[in-house]
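Recap from last week: sequence in, structure out.
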Amino acid sequence: MIHQTNRTEPSIGQQLDNLGLADALPQGHQVVQATVSLVTAEHQDGGHEIHRPIQLPYSAPGAIPVPHPHVRCVRLIFDAAQALSPSQRDRVASWLDANGIEPSRVAAGHPVTVEYKTDGQKEWGHLICFAEYYEDASGSRTFDYKTQAATVVQRCVRQSAGLEPEGSV
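Predicted structure tokens:
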């Protein structure tokens, strides 16, 4: 008599495949144990964090399953060299303002992006990333003698309002 079980958990091999960590196995072989080391990096400061290894199978107390893969995405709102029409410029300016960003301080000639994470079904952690003119205490832009241009700083702000579709403003 053959006993079949209804398996709801993906196999170790399937979990590794889902993470893009598949390895070619000889015919008839299967993965019976795996250890995945997870290292994450913060985009802004370049620092990284090494997390505890993930052991599979995860039947031992305190073990954690291989997480669903999260993909980091960057959506380009406009490129550094892109010319915007007056209606596009108004639409983007309204969006920036709705997110607490003063449009006149966003540096020309630099891209504006939205960075976020997704698992393929939902998105989260939306950050608006842009270059901003640096102003001194009196509100005047400062000059960077090395670049021979206005001083700019890279900023990322949590997005609280989405960008309206084109043609809606």
